[in-house]
Amino acid sequence: MPDTARATAEPRIDRAPMPGARERPWARTRAALRDDRAHWRRRGWPRARFARGYHAVWLYRLSRYAHERGWRVTAWLLWLVNGWWTGADIPPSSRIAGGLFLPYPYGAVIAGAVGRDAAFGVQASIGGLLKEPDSDVGGGPGLPVLGDGVVLEAGALVLGAVRVGDGARLGPRVVVLKDVARAETVMPQPWRALPGRGGAA
After folding, report:
1. What are phi and psi of 185, to 5 degrees?
2. Which CA distances in Å does 78 have to 2, 88, 124, 129, 130?
């Protein structure tokens, strides 16, 4: 019997092209860019081409295309340009489906696999843990997998070989180290005021 939890969390990310299909990587890149622009418009950014976050997404798409074609030096040069220009760290080995929304790219790290229409807040990041270098749930060794429509608020982190289900929402400054179910909302601990800390010295 298939594991339904793993099936719902698996993002529908395009796989590697079939041998001999020379046009497929570029067609897939163009389709992803169209989905990116559509998601940005839905979120109130009709002129996304002027936003540095959209530049980060665009440069990632080009580096991913070069990576798929086997132009590894070009791919990693585009990754370096992306980090220099936008401050985002999105390796070309990451697999990100169309519709990536990244309005404030500085300090963001996206290493792993991401489904369609994901949204990343300020300095929201996903990546690996040194203690799990060999575990692979589909995003790469030690890297997470995000489903479709996942939202990461400002400062949210997803670390390690974990799965985040479709439609999940991770609150501000949440650190996720284990699987998150489909459509689940994860919020940080409620804050509390400490007595005597608010007065002037």
Report:
1. -110, 125
2. 39, 12, 22, 25, 26
Helices assigned H by DSSP within 44-120: 52-69, 72-86
Per-residue pLDDT of the chain (201 residues; tens, 9 = 90+): 444 444 444 455 544 433 444 458 888 899 999 999 999 999 988 787 888 999 999 999 999 999 999 999 999 999 999 999 999 999 999 999 999 999 999 999 999 999 999 999 999 999 988 776 677 788 888 899 999 999 999 999 999 999 999 999 999 999 999 999 999 999 987 777 777 655 544
Q: In sequence order, which ranges of the chain are alpha helices (DSSP H)?
A: 4-9, 24-42, 52-69, 72-86
Q: How many CB atoms lie within 10 A of CB 12?
A: 11
CA separation, residue 69 to residues 6, 37, 47, 90, 93 (Å)? 30, 24, 30, 18, 12
Cβ-Cβ contacts under 8 Å for 84 (sequence gap 6 or more): none
CB atoms within 10 A of CB 140: 18
Domain residue spans of the chain: 19-186
Domain 19-186 has CATH 2.160.10.10: yes
